[in-house]
Amino acid sequence: QVQLVESGGGLVQAGGSLRLSCAASRMTFSINAMGWYRRAPGKQRELVATVTNRGTTTYADSVKGRFTISRDNAKNTVYLQMNSLKPEDTAIYYCNARSVMDYWGQGTQVTVSS
Questions:
Q1: What value does the mean pLDDT of the chain take?
Q2: Which of 88, 3, 83 is CA-nearest to residue 46?
Q3: CA distances from 19 to 1, 27, 28, 84, 90 (A)
Q4: Is the distance from CB of 15 to CB of 3 less than 8 angstroms?
Q5: What confidence tier does 28 reach under pLDDT thresholds 50, 70, 90?
Q6: Burial 7-23 (b: 16+ CB within 10 A, else e)
Q7: Which are the contacts of 69, defined by CB distance < 8 A and separation ≥ 6?
Q8: pLDDT of 64-107, one tens digit each?
């Protein structure tokens, strides 16, 4: 099974930046796409951004122009650069890897203060 380890969350003021990282291990050859989802308090989990093996990216409308997803295939790592953060970006961010099934990281807390 694919294992995912996330890092990079924390507390930041509005307008600030954070960079999340997610390293995949085990059966990484089976991964077709990786991405980030988030769950805000009282809300359902939502897609933030994804990137395929070919580099095709998808973003939620709410983060377009502020967040950038990238992938280092040699390191089996996906990154999420988050700029111009807003309080509504506060959530637990989960890394996702998609192969024949979905794999999830443990989540990392991002808190943006106003």
A1: 95
A2: 88
A3: 26, 25, 22, 12, 14
A4: no
A5: confident
A6: ebbeebeeeeebebbbb
A7: 35, 36, 48, 49, 50, 51, 57, 59, 78, 79, 80, 81
A8: 999 999 999 889 999 999 999 999 999 999 999 999 999 999 99
Long-range contacts of 89-92 (CB under 8 A, 24+ apart): 89/38, 89/63, 90/40, 90/41, 91/38, 91/39, 91/40, 91/41, 91/43, 92/38, 92/39
Give the pair of three-digit tokens for residue 57.
């990216």
Closest CA to 10 of 25, 2, 24, 21: 21
